[in-house]
Please model this.
Amino acid sequence: MDQIYLTIGQMADLNHVTTQTLRLYDREGLLKPEFQDESNGYRYYHMNQCAQLDMIQTMKICGMTLRQIRQQLENSSLEELHIFLQEQDKMLEEKMRQLSDSRKSIHRLCANIGQLKSLPPVGEIFLEYVQERRIDTLYTEIDYFTDGYAGYERMLRRFKDHMVNHNLPLSYFLNAGTLIEKEDFVREQYVAHTVFIFVDEEYPEIETVRKVPEGLMMAICADDPEKELEYAKKLYRKLQEMGYEAEGDYLCEVISQLPMIGNGGKRDMIYKIQVPVRRKM
Model:
């Protein structure tokens, strides 16, 4: 027999595929052995069929189904192939964006978990220097300190609506916190109508995004949402005792939260209250 004919095993080895794959392509009508030996019934591939197998593998890599590949091989329409590849390119671009967003969420969660390991004990006030950050904010009619945990959940729903309505990536919807405006905090008016999330430089530029300047923060950690007001007042008293004044908004940053089974679905939460400070002149 001419050397250009190959058994199924030879064809598979030569093209780095399995014999099961070749049998599948045979059943689906994509690539059938070209020659059958009448004396023994064995079927053989022609060496030239490697080009067709290369095309099948390329189309698979591009995301085409076996049915689409068969249609393309039967019709041999470059125009249809071109249209499909353009559509596939758009789909893969969106999938890559989604995967990138997923990785960012993973990185933020890992960073939060890592931060937990270095935090002082709950209730202990401390100072830390923090680099500039960005937050997306939403003012609501709800006041966290009046409406409590249920109010917090409603604030989160408002924020999620805000993100969906502005076509913002929901991968950033993570560990949302609440904010007291500086003017209210320095007057000891504990009202938090604003909910926020931390965002990075790739987050869309919209008018609700604020910068949190780098600088010294006075902070305290807590693990009971019911005690935030108590800790907020404690932080304010300490700030006064040490001769500092607030230089920016009060942020309650949620660092870790998990819905708890058997706790009415409430979140098991660790949060950090922080206020930018400077020495009184």
Q: What stands out?
A: DSSP finds eight helices and twelve strands in the chain.
